[in-house]
Amino acid sequence: MLRLPPFSYLAPRTLSAAVRVLADHDPAETMLVAGGTDLYPNMKRRQFEPRQLVGLRHIREIQALTGDPQHGLSIGGGMTLTQISHHPTVVAAYPALATAAGLVSTPQLRNMGTIGGNLCVDTRCNYYNQTYWWRQAIGFCMKKDGDTCWVAPGSTRCWAVSSSDTAPVMLALDAQVRLVGPQGERLIPVHDLYRDDGIRYLGKRQDEILTHILLPPTDGWRMHYFKLRRREAFDFPILGVAAALRLANDGTCTDARLVLGAVASTPVVASEASTQLIGRRLTPEVIEAAAEMAFKPAKPLDNTDLLLSYRKKMVRVHVARTLRHLAAVPSPPPRG
Ligand SMILES: Cc1cc2nc3c(=O)[nH]c(=O)nc-3n(C[C@H](O)[C@H](O)[C@H](O)COP(=O)(O)OP(=O)(O)OC[C@H]3O[C@@H](n4cnc5c(N)ncnc54)[C@H](O)[C@@H]3O)c2cc1C
Ligand code: SF4
Predict the structure, then answer these.
(1) How far is the CA of 164 from the centre of ligand 1 (A)?
(2) Which pairing describes strands 72-76 and 65-68: parallel, antiparallel, or unpaired?
(3) Centroid of ligand 1 to alpha carbon of 334 (angstroms)
(4) Does pTM surpass 0.85?
């Protein structure tokens, strides 16, 4: 049985208390924990060995959803994935987010796992998501305890894969995140929360708490999230396709954002594919052309489930499926 390493657990009850606790401890030895569904297994494998954890579960300020689709939503980073996937406003107005949250892992993990934890979840790699002894047997790797990347041995960076289901959706929706820490508070586009680096994959300080996600008004956007994984019952994505589109009454696309998950160390915005949709109707030819363009920036490596050639091919297939789904769904209600 794998056991957790020893650590102190600090349980502030307010956001300001959490910030004080973080200010009093060395960020290099301190981590935040919400549901713990990713962090605790990782700690058991000694991928992380913090001296103290700051628990976020008792902080009520980060557990509420406010706002409406006309003005935008504020979603507390401490809300569980079950709450998000069942919330009537999210289901009705931001269905791609409800879908993505509802496809994470299993019901038990969604009851514990939070949206903040999902957006900050560690990157993954076959050479890293292993027990300490397995990793020791290969001489460890650059992401933890070693200095070589076994996926790309000549590389100076880590290529572990961004595997959050909700992150691509947040980019497609153009969300912002509020970060609060000992250095103060800031609001950043969710795009800036991610970096294309398997080790330093977050563009936030270690001691910043993701307190809220701000979603813009729905404003006529239609959206969808598609997830490809080995087992439908539960598994991390081997491909996520998040798409948000606005279509005029005659079916012409007036705005588009396509984002791919699980193909790099960061969610990948398929900008060329998105741009080429604008000003066109979603005919089969236009959809195929966009899928072809989205296929190009996706560069999966041989470090997650299934063959990389299959994963790459599936980008074309599933971007096309996602766009066909969006072309067929009824128009969202006009902005009210
Ligand atoms: C078997 C299994 C299957 C899984 N399948 C999936 C899957 O299909 N898709 C998927 O996306 N994930 C999956 N996960 C990963 C994980 O369960 C989810 O990503 C979950 O949402 C993580 O949320 P959490 O609250 O449990 O995060 P935690 O485990 O508590 O934390 C995860 C990371 O986020 C940081 N963190 C947590 N909350 C905050 C915050 N508010 N502000 C700043 N940093 C924070 C922590 O410091 C830690 O680094 C799986 C995990 C397991 C064990
Ligand atoms: S991509 Fe390379 S450095 Fe990163 S976790 Fe995998 S083997 Fe380690």
Answers:
(1) 8
(2) antiparallel
(3) 35
(4) yes
Tokens representing 14 are 């307010």
* Cα 174 to Cα 216: distance, rounded to the nearest angstrom: 7
Torsion of CA 326, 332, 334, 336, to 10 degrees: -130
Task: Count Cβ atoms within 10 A of the Cβ of residue 199 and give its class: 0-12 exposed, 13-18 middle, 19 or more buried.
Answer: middle
264 CB near ligand 2 (under 6 Å): no
CA of 163, closest atom in ligand 1? 11
Mutate which of 145, 158, 305 for ligand 2 pocket (most atoms within 8 A of beta carbon): 158
DSSP reduced 3-state for 72: strand
Distance 210 CA to ligand 1 centre (A): 13
**At what angle are helices 308-328 and 284-295 packed, to 10 degrees?**
150
Q: Three-state SS for 43?
A: helix
Q: Is the CB of 301 under 6 A from ligand 2?
A: no
Q: Would you give per-residue pLDDT tens digits along the chain (336 residues)?
A: 899 999 999 999 999 999 999 999 999 999 999 999 999 999 999 999 999 999 999 999 999 999 999 999 999 999 999 999 999 999 999 999 999 999 999 999 999 999 999 999 999 999 999 999 999 999 999 999 999 999 999 999 999 999 999 999 999 999 999 999 999 999 999 999 999 999 999 999 999 999 999 999 999 999 999 999 999 888 999 999 999 999 999 999 999 999 999 999 999 999 999 999 999 999 999 999 999 999 987 888 889 999 989 999 999 999 999 999 999 876 665 554
Joined tokens for residue 308: 């990389």
Give residue 230 CA to ligand 2 midpoint distance, Å. 21
Q: Is the Cβ atom of 161 under 6 angstroms away from ligand 2?
A: no
Q: Cα(122) to centroid of ligand 1, in Å?
A: 7
CA atoms within 13 A on the CB side of 97: 31
Residue 257 token pair: 């954002």
- If you take atom 1 of ligand 2, which residue's CA is the nearest one? 159
Tokens of 175: 């969300």
